[in-house]
Amino acid sequence: MKILESFLLDNNKIFFSFAYSLLSDDLQAQQVVIDAIYVLNLKKSDLVEDLLASKEKSSQVDILAQINKFILSQIFSISQKRIIHLKNSIALDDNFLAFYNMNTAKRALLFLKYKTQTTFSDIAEIIGVNEFELMGLLSTAHKNLIENLGHDTKHIFA
To answer: Fewer CB near the terminus (10 Å): N or C of the chain?
Structure first.
């Protein structure tokens, strides 16, 4: 259990930052992380058991990567549901309106790609699209972010 606890503590900052990038509220972001870890214990107890039973370092690393991907996908899924109920009650920081005015899938994609250097295949799995759709979503996210910042995109995306 020590390895899982250590993994969760080491990655809590990433999990929280990802949730915050989707919800922009400290308390809601932390609750989403807690909920995602709870879902891990409910739905993927076999993965946790495999981790605890494993003695090989390479096997543990593979299992932790699966756990990481599962938690990130749960954070994304829970946030998408929660944002519907919180849309009007969350105060957005004016400094980040260009980012928060995009939908959660685009924010998740940009955060995971640029802040955590997550692979495209993992991002696609986390947000539930195929890699082809992901490339289109990335292009649209870039365009939306540039437009939300008040810049003309006609010369960039012609």
So the answer is: C
